[in-house]
């Protein structure tokens, strides 16, 4: 059981590194071509909009988590006129 948990953690860590290094992957719907053939017509792929790449699911999750954290935290407001560490000499 411990070996399976360790293997799962290693796989997840590897996927996290892959998402950080290479956030885009070839589109699975059009096989990275950017167009799809529907009968006799050739159309842009709706999933990737013809860009040939899609954002990985792990990177999308990371971006969403970062946006939620950024929206929920306050920024440090520094006013240099009122937050003085030392008083000025007369």
Give a written overview of the molecule:
With 90 residues, this protein is of the alpha+beta class. It is built from two helices and four strands. The relative contact order is 0.12. The mean pLDDT is 83. The protein starts with a helix and ends in an 18-residue tail after the last helix. The chain is flat, with a radius of gyration of 24 Å.
Question: TL;DR of this structure?
Answer:
With 90 residues, the chain is an alpha+beta fold. It has helices at residues 2-21, 57-72; strands at residues 24-26, 35-38, 41-44, 53-55.
Number of helices: 2
| Beta-strand residue percentage | 15-25%
What does the main sheet amount to? 2 strands, antiparallel
Q: What does the average pLDDT come to?
A: 83
Alpha-carbon distance between the termini?
71 Å
In angstroms, what is the radius of gyration?
24 Å
Overall 3D form: flat
Number of strands: 4
Low-confidence segments, given as residue ranges, are none
Question: H/E element string?
Answer: HEEEEH
Fraction in helix: 40-55%
Question: Strand pairing plus helix content: what structural class?
Answer: alpha+beta
Widest sheet, order of strands = 1-4
Features of the shown structure:
single chain, 90 residues, alpha+beta, two-stranded antiparallel sheet, 4 strands, 40% helix
């Amino acid at each position: 059981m411990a070996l399976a948990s360790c293997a799962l953690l290693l796989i997840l860590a590897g996927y996290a590194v892959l998402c950080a290094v290479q956030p885009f992957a070839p589109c699975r719907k059009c096989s990275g071509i950017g167009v799809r053939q529907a009968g006799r017509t050739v159309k842009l792929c709706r999933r990737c909009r013809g860009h040939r790449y899609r954002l990985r699911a792990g990177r999308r999750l990371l971006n969403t988590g970062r946006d939620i954290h950024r929206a929920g935290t306050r920024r440090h407001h520094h006013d240099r006129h009122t937050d003085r560490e030392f008083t000025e000499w007369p």
